[in-house]
Structure formats: structure tokens, C-alpha cells
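Quick one, probably user error.
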């Protein structure tokens, strides 16, 4: 009787084995998707342990220094600076440590090819500084990149905030990554500025007050045309 019971259980165990394997794979996929979703929430809304940066009307949530998670931020830029390696993504900086990415302060003097997707333009001494997550960036024309710099003295009391740049709603038709989208939006912004003379990061767009409405429309049309040419649907 005992032998018979064992023989009837063996086919059941063999049938369940692939099902258990599928359950393990499904659980791993769900965990991965959850981690990516958790990462993307940083720029859009509050999450456990995040802090709110309201300086200069920035009004964005960021992860605190020292926060860590497994893997590399999706679509991050790898930045080498003074012999160290950093990840730069969504306005935050990370250092790799084993299999972890740890949020750190931005390294002074490091260069980045694009600004964070959300930033505040702050004028001080006639110079535009770009601010996000307690970090200031300054355009370096020599290398044609943005440099992480110290906060100018008294900028918190004398700096004036420029209007928030206009943004178009875009959809990546060709499956462009978040990193590629950031790069394309920045390049098309620069193209539109060159074509129209209107720069939304400057007061009044850098044009005469009576020309703002017309030049803003021209800027948005030029930006939309550039993005559509790079494989995006623009609304």
C-alpha cells in the first residue's frame, strides 16, 4: 500500500515541476517591473522616504542621499569624473557599489551632456544657473556641456527664477529609451532656439515683449517638427 501511494504521487510531482518554474519566473518579472516603476516615480510624486525640493519653485520629489537599490537606473548616463564612475539620471546622481546604486551628491566639476528633465532656471549676476535637487549646473561653452558648480553666494536671496520652459507632449513611436528621449528633446530645443531666436529658459524668451506670443508659437512649431523628424508623435 505504501509503495502504491508513492508511485501515484510521482506523476503529479513531475506535472507540477514546470508550473513551479513558471511561477518563479513570473515572480521575478513582477519584482523587476516593480523596481522600474519605483524608480520612475521619483520625478512625478511622493514615495516612501523621498524629500520635496521646493527651492526656486522647483517643486519636485527626490530620493535622499544614501538611498540604494539593486541594479542601475534605467536609461542613466555613465559619467567618469576624477577616476570615479557615476550614474546620472532624472536629476539625481548615483555611485555603483557592488550590485547597488547609491544616491550621492553631484560631484563638483563633472560634466553632463543634458540637463535634468525637470529643472529651474535661476538668474544670478546676469548668468543663468540651472537647478535641480540641490545641484547647480552652468553651461560650459568650451566643452559644450553642463558643469556641476557650487551655488553662488546669496543666490537664495538675489536669484530670480525664469519662467518654466514650455513642453510638448511626445510619444516615442520607435520605442526610444528614456535616455534617448531626453537627448532628442534637448537637441530639438536647441534647434528651435537657433531657428526662432526664442529661448523659453530666458525671461520673455529673450525677445521683445510684444514678440513673445508669436515667437513662442514659432518655437513650439520648430520643436515639434524636429521631434516628429526623429520619430515621435507630438501633441
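Nope, works fine. Designed sequence:
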Amino acid at each position: 500500500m505504501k509503495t502504491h501511494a508513492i508511485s501515484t504521487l510521482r506523476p503529479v510531482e513531475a506535472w507540477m515541476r514546470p508550473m513551479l518554474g513558471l511561477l518563479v519566473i513570473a515572480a521575478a518579472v513582477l519584482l523587476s517591473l516593480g523596481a522600474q516603476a519605483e524608480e520612475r516615480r521619483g520625478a512625478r510624486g511622493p514615495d516612501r522616504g523621498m524629500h520635496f525640493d521646493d527651492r526656486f519653485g522647483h517643486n519636485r520629489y527626490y530620493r535622499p542621499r544614501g538611498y540604494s537599490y539593486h541594479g542601475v537606473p534605467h536609461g542613466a548616463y555613465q559619467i567618469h569624473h576624477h577616476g570615479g564612475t557615476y550614474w546620472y539620471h532624472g536629476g539625481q546622481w548615483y555611485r555603483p557599489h557592488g550590485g547597488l546604486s547609491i544616491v550621492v551628491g553631484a560631484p563638483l566639476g563633472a560634466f553632463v551632456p543634458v540637463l535634468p528633465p525637470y529643472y529651474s532656471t535661476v538668474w544670478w549676476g546676469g548668468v543663468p544657473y540651472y537647478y535641480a535637487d540641490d545641484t547647480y549646473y552652468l553651461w560650459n561653452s568650451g566643452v559644450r556641456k553642463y558643469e556641476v558648480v557650487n551655488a553662488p553666494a546669496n543666490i537664495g536671496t538675489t536669484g530670480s527664477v525664469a519662467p518654466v520652459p514650455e513642453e510638448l507632449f511626445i510619444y516615442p513611436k520607435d520605442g526610444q529609451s528614456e535616455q534617448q528621449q531626453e537627448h532628442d528633446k534637448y537637441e530639438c530645443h536647441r534647434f528651435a532656439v537657433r531657428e526662432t531666436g526664442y529661448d523659453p529658459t530666458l525671461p520673455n524668451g529673450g525677445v521683445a515683449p510684444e514678440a513673445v506670443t508669436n515667437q513662442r508659437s514659432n518655437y513650439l512649431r520648430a520643436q515639434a517638427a524636429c521631434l516628429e523628424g526623429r520619430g515621435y508623435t507630438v501633441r
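The chain has four helices and 15 strands.
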